[in-house]
Write a structure and sequence with these properties.
The complex is a heterodimer.
Chain A lengths: L1 H40 L1 H6 L3 E2 L4 E2 L2 H32 L2 H16 L2 H20 L6 H11 L1 H13 L3 H9 L4 H12 L1 H17 L2 H6 L17 H8 L6 H32 L1
Antiparallel strand pairs in A: 1-2
Helix pairs in contact in A: 1-13, 3-6, 3-7, 3-10, 4-7, 5-6, 7-10, 8-9, 10-13, 12-13
Chain B lengths: L1 H69 L1 E5 L4 H14 L5 E6 L1 H10 L4 E4 L11 E14 L7 E2 L1 H9 L16 E5 L4 H11 L9 E3 L2 H10 L3 E6 L8 E2 L1 E2 L6 H5 L6 E8 L5 H10 L2 H9 L3 E2 L6
Parallel strand pairs in B: 1-2, 1-3, 5-10, 6-7, 6-8
Antiparallel strand pairs in B: 3-11, 4-8, 4-9, 4-11, 4-12
The chains are: A mainly alpha, B alpha/beta.
């Protein structure tokens, strides 16, 4: 029996190890494919180049890096206020019984496939933007609006956890000092849960930067530097998604190199989020 | 600290022992008698089952290898893919013992697959480059590229050089083409697409397509965008033009089968089947079917231009 347990332990360990192994394999492969091209083109020409014309050997992804951040910041402008308001409402203002109705609904937002968000954006939002605000409609604004909704579950779930993890004495203390409910929320609870809330925003940001399918459908994928929120744009992820079907040789390597840049951005954000949520625990 | 650690360990041990005891108890209660009663019979049944299963598996494996022997792979251009699928289905309904696997991947990938032998037939929606000329290529049909706009767009005829200026971004407003005062939304295909390569060659020449152009990754997506945007212009396969969009006349020539056949409409590209050598066996038989009048008629119905004169 003792032996059997040891075997089970080892097998589970191996299975756990395999997931790390797969991650290492993917990382290795992305770098192995992408690095040669970055070296060939030059890191500066690759990261800061303004033109992406693979058929002519021009691989500048600067407009895509900028577009990725435009779209993400736009999404945060919508997602943070909405998400925070939702969190406060859920954790402080409504009775728990009503919360059990709202919470699954918000989690359902995360379960909707991104292609559905994209389709909805394309059919509903894009014509509205084209008709009422000008431009082609397929734009950063449309992308940001859709992404803003897509990151809501991430922001709400994690920041609500942060609020719930606060010791009840904070609230009791604030009430005892005569603070109103709103004063308690705004001056005591939110500042105390700040690092968790920031972590939720950063994870939402990672989600927004990584979204591909919906963005391919509604951003329009033009490869020039965006100059307004009504411009079409191409993010790092959509660059890979839209061109992988036909890419070969150096072009394919360039898409993997795009993946490397994305890898570093997402890694930085996740590390930041982990660091912040650890600090909360102390 | 140390104390705490050993405490925890002891706890784990205790838990394990506990688990053991419980499991033993379960064994004594129920499992043993059942084992005694059914043990012999069940092993007997197992070996019987095995005796049947083994030959069955062998037969299945043989069927499997025969299947894969008879099957051929056709891979390449996503423009040709839907038509190849249709032809393969028709072919398989006639030859029930063969199987044709159709895969996408793009013209270049398809040609590469034909060279390396990863596919028996490569599909290409562009002409072969000089380096690829040593391959055996057969035109199975021709496809025209139509320049399309929204149905409400007043423009319905443009010369080729104006189209070039629109797509390169030199003409940026419909006003310059006699239309309403509104910026032009250019829609193009992604880099590497066979349709884009052909369009670049036929229309753009040395000029680049504007970097500000919207990029969509399929004929269908281009058509979707243009059908909903009154100011858009783009290009798709003629076979996929429908009532949602309007195909422009180019210097007065309407894009249709007649004008493609008599050579007046010039934006025409070949759909190629590429072989690494002389086609043989199943691949040859499939090619013969594709070039037969009945298959060509099928392609004509789907909007392509047949390469066979008499369709019977």
């Amino acid at each position: 029996m003792q032996l059997q347990e040891k075997i089970v332990e080892k097998v589970l360990f191996l299975i756990a190890l395999s997931s790390i192994f797969i991650l290492a394999l993917i990382t290795f492969f992305i770098f192995e494919e992408g690095i040669p091209l970055i070296l060939k083109v030059g890191p500066k020409a690759f990261l800061l180049g303004q033109k992406w014309i693979p058929s002519k050997g021009l691989f500048g992804i600067f407009p895509m890096i900028v577009s990725s951040f435009w779209v993400t910041i736009g999404a945060l402008l919508l997602g943070i206020p909405l998400g925070l308001a939702c969190t406060i409402f859920l954790s402080e203002l409504i009775p728990p019984s009503v919360g059990t109705l709202f919470r699954p609904a918000i989690q359902l937002l995360a379960a909707i496939p991104s292609v559905i968000y994209g389709f909805w954006g394309l059919i509903v939002l894009v014509p509205l933007i084209r008709n009422y605000m000008g431009g082609p409609g397929l734009s950063i604004l449309a992308g940001s609006l859709v992404l803003g909704f897509m990151i809501l579950p991430t922001i709400i779930t994690i920041s609500e956890d942060a609020l719930k993890a606060l010791p009840p004495s904070y609230k009791a203390g604030a009430f005892a000092l005569g603070a109103t409910h709103w004063q308690t929320i705004w001056r005591v609870l939110i500042p105390a849960a700040r690092s968790g809330i920031v972590a939720s925003v950063i994870l939402g940001m990672g989600r927004a930067l990584g979204e591909t399918m919906a963005m391919i459908m509604i951003l329009g994928n033009a490869v020039k530097m965006p100059t307004s929120f009504l411009d079409s744009a191409r993010t790092l992820t959509t660059n890979i998604g839209i061109e992988m079907g036909y890419a070969s040789g150096g072009h394919r390597q360039a898409l993997f190199a795009t993946g490397i840049v994305l890898f570093f951005i997402i890694m930085t954000l996740n590390t930041l989020a982990i660091f912040l949520s650890k600090r909360r625990a102390h | 600290m140390d104390n705490h650690h050993t405490d925890k360990k002891a706890g784990v041990m205790e838990y394990r022992r506990d688990g053991l005891k419980r499991r033993k108890a379960i064994f004594q209660h129920s499992s043993t008698p059942i084992l005694l009663a059914n043990g012999i019979e069940s092993t007997h049944a197992n070996s019987k089952l095995l005796r049947w299963l083994l030959p069955l598996l062998l037969i299945l494996a043989c069927v499997g290898c025969q299947r894969s022997k008879a099957g051929i792979t056709v891979a390449g251009s996503t423009s040709v893919e839907p038509f190849a699928e249709l032809l393969a289905e028709e072919y398989m309904s006639r030859h029930s013992d063969s199987h044709i696997y159709v895969q996408g991947g793009g013209s270049t990938a398809g040609i590469e697959a034909a060279i390396t032998g990863a596919a028996n037939i490569g599909m290409s929606s562009r002409n072969l480059t000089d380096a690829e000329k040593k391959l055996h290529a057969v035109t199975i049909a021709k496809d025209a590229i139509a320049i399309i706009v929204h149905p409400t767009n007043p423009t319905d005829n443009l010369p080729l050089d104006k189209i070039r200026e629109v797509f390169s971004g030199k003409i940026a407003n419909w006003k310059e083409l006699g239309g309403p005062d509104h910026p032009i939304d250019i829609v193009t295909r992604e880099e590497g697409s066979g349709t884009r390569e052909s369009f670049q060659k036929f229309v753009m020449g040395k000029e680049d397509i504007s970097l500000g152009a919207l990029v969509q990754d399929s004929n269908g997506a281009v058509r979707q965008v243009i059908s909903s945007d009154p100011n858009a212009i783009g290009y798709i396969s003629l076979g996929l033009v429908n009532e949602q969009v309007k195909a422009l006349r180019i210097t007065g020539v309407q894009p249709n089968l007649e004008n493609v056949n008599n050579g007046r409409y010039t934006l025409v590209r070949p759909f190629l089947f590429v072989f690494s050598g002389e086609p043989a066996g199943e691949a040859k038989s499939f090619l013969e079917f594709v070039l037969s009048p009945s298959a060509q008629k099928l392609l004509l119905k789907e909007g392509l231009v047949p390469v066979v004169e008499k369709l019977g």
